[in-house]
Description:
The complex is a heterodimer.
Chain A: H1 2-16, H2 32-51, H3 66-90, H4 94-109, H5 118-121, H6 131-137, E1 145-148, E2 152-155, H7 156-167, H8 171-174, H9 177-197, H10 199-208, H11 212-228, H12 239-244
Antiparallel strand pairs in A: 1-2
Helix pairs in contact in A: 1-7, 3-4, 3-9, 6-7, 10-11
Chain B: H1 3-17, H2 27-45, H3 51-65, H4 68-76, H5 79-82, H6 85-108, E1 114-123, E2 126-134, E3 141-148, E4 155-161, E5 164-165, H7 166-180, H8 185-194
Antiparallel strand pairs in B: 1-2, 2-3, 3-4, 4-5
Amino acid sequence: MMKISAAVLVVTALLGACSPAPQGVSVHDPYEVQNRRVHAFNKSVSDTFSGAGAGAGGGSGDAVPTELTDRVVNFGDNVSLPGMVLNGLLQGDLDGAVTNSVRFAINTTVGLLGLFDPADAMGVTEQETDFGETLAVWGVPEGAYLELPLFGPSTERALAGRIVDMLIDPLDSVGTKEQIEYGTVGKLAARVIKVTQAGDTIDSVLNDSADSYTQLRLIYLQNRRFELGTTPPEDAVDPYDDIFGDQ
Amino acid sequence: MTLMTRRALMAGAAAVAFPMPSFALSAPAAQELVTRLVADVNTVISSGKSEAGMVADFANILNRHADVPTIARYCLGADARAASASQMAAYTPAFANYIATKYGRRFREFIGGEITVQGALPVKSWIEVETTVLLRGRSPLRMDWHVSDRSGKHVFFNFIIEGVNMLLTERAEVGAMLDRQRGDLDMLTAEMRAV
């Protein structure tokens, strides 16, 4: 009960701050000065991990055998499913909720507590979602862009969602003892591994861009809106309009 | 004068007198273009070439299947209007080199994977061709290609990977690069040629 009231508090506090974006502007970044400071910090952390990684530069994911990382990613992904089921239900996405439930049941049992992913081979793939998406479905505006220390790009709405997902996790009632015990660590480890695997792309954005803050913000917002199905129609640009002047 | 040259001359004169309408934009033609393009890309990513070799191959693909002048001009934004013809003539191939290098490196991450064409449908004034990038051990990526015949033939002018729009993203980046060169287009061209 405590957790639910805390979650309600988080949502109301953060969403009160969720200012609707002005029309026609696809980036709403009133905290840019602060965000850029955090970005500089995140970049230095990323440099430390990828650059000083004793020659592992770029391919640091190769250092750990994939046989091991795959198990960790599978376990972490699997314990995230109950939360996704709950969010699917809250969004009225019954199909997604059923698919994720079936997936959780298969991988927890046949997949040995989620260390393996037999569901994937059966075509029961993860229908990724979170409470940030639930808020989007409920009509809450995206709010301002945020760059969070270590976690990276986000928005006010996505941050509220992330906190609520942490506070209310149905895994606590449906998971096995091991899953509940190692769930949080597993999710975090899976996340770190995925970021490392995407390392080359992220490194090249961070290190090769003339303005890596702007690039990261643009890439994150476009990708997040694509996942939520909220890409603004004006993003479909027609370069021939510009050239021939026949708007 | 041989028959051939006279015929060619007359065709040329006719073309000047009555400009031919460009070939009609069609979804099957656009899909065919992307199918050829994707086959080329798949050949490159399975070729096992060095990074430099792959980048050269991607530059070829870009020149063959993309409307490079339009992409280059769009990414430069309003500054393109102030540029002279000779500045644009130098900037455009330098931009192509920049794009081929940057995305050539990214495409290297697709090694071991494959791109497949899903279908095509008209959007606004162009055709959107949807493809799927299948990667080993990761969820598939959606990649859309925007194809137009405004340059005279079916070529792509934009691609969108998981919602990330190349034209919008590169317009911001090229703008930042130009700012870093204090708005000097010739310096930007030199920088892009050297990447």
